[in-house]
Amino acid sequence: MCFRTQRAIATLPRLVAAAVVITAGGCSRPAPTPSPPPVSEVTVTAPRAARVPEYLEVTGRIDAELVVDIRSRITGYLTKVAFRDGQFVAKGDPLYEIDARPSVARLDEATGTIERLLGEQRFLKVQVDRFDKLVAKGAASQQDLDSYRAKLDENAGALVAARAQHEAARLNVEFCSITSPIDGQVGRTQMQVGNLINQDQTTLTTIVSIDPIFVYFNVDEPTLVRVMAHARESGRGPGVGGDETVVELGLVDDVARAYPHRSRVDFLNNQVDTKTATITMRGRLDNPYSADPAAPRPPLFRPGMFARVRLPLGDPVERLFVPEAAVGSNQDRKILWTVGDGDVVSAREVRVGQKLGSWIAVAATDAARPLTTDQRIVIRGLQRCREGKPVQPLAAEEGSLDLEGFVAPASPPPGDAPADRTSPPAAESLPPPGDPSP
Fold it and tell me: pTM value?
């Protein structure tokens, strides 16, 4: 190995050490401070107060007051169907005709039997009078007189039976024409002309009454106790004198839950169903219609319809409402995000109640920290909220809050006749906010 090579190898450790010193000096520089994450934007609004009655919303079914299965009272062949399927009929309108000739023949036979017995009766009366005089003169025996008197009594009994058979035959002739027993709407006929109709067995069609009509719904036992307690205190409610409860209802087209129709509760069942722990209530509805071809007006309610029923539970109280979009869920709990001092958000557990349009009643579960109308509630951006973290709140525009649906319903005054309501009442003037209880 030459001298130059030995010198280079000896110098190499010093060069490596110098590189390490330079590298170590570079790592000792302070790292740059990271910039804070941007503050999330959320949309906020204030709760709004409204004085509203407390309601229970349940589902119900509309049913007819009268449902009649039309059957024949005689056996015979159908000769005429006097209605169109689905036609509105009045009490006494003709529905079916059954071949009356056999019944008319039996009626004529019964009439002839009566005439024969009446002739026998006239003869026997003459004989009794004649033999009564002959017996008095000793020209006839008492036995002959008694025989004619017995025959006269027998004739009287036979005449009563013949007249009963005549009445039955007359009724059978009358039963050959079947008429509507009620006002209402007839269904589809089950039998056509030429079919044999069996007495009291063959169902020809069904008629349901239309006006008035009923809505049936069930309430649970705790609600029943609450309704009865309020009725005892106020002196009005189901089963309390003449002051009946007025409920509001809507059909499947009532998407906005406006409950435009009113019904008066006229029936409360006398016992609670032990299987379901509910009791049945019934409301009566006016359901006018017109079958006049010049000005037809079909009924609004039909048996079997689904209905949403709103049952008042007490006097109006003030409640706080927030947009339904502001209510979040944490497992089985409902929460609101509120923006406090320093624009820091915090979660508040709440109870929810009835709805007014897209607004829903809320109340804090912690009575020591009630909700108020001057708080800021997050309605959009809930997923960006973190407990104790700041946010950038933006006030919601009035036009985006669906205030048209935020209308407090008026409690129906007791004693008023039920009436359809096509538009909700105007909102009431509201007192200062308080602590609502949904």
Answer: 0.64
What is the distance between the alpha carbons of residues 438 and 22, in angstroms, rounded to a whole number?
73
Whether residue 108 is found in the same domain as residue 150 = yes
In a domain, 29, yes or no: no
Does 16 reside within a domain? no
371 and 257, same structural domain?
no
User: Which tens digits make up the pLDDT trace of 329-346?
Assistant: 887 889 999 998 888 999
Count CB neighbours of 404 within 10 A: 10
Which two structure tokens, joined as six digits, stand for 294? 């010049």
Residue range 382-427, pLDDT digits in tens: 888 888 888 888 988 887 887 777 776 655 554 444 444 433 333 3
**Looking only at Cα atoms, what is the longest distance across the chain?**
195
Q: When comparing pLDDT for 23 and 29, which is higher?
A: 29
Are 70 and 198 within one domain?
yes
Domain CATH for 269: 2.40.30.170
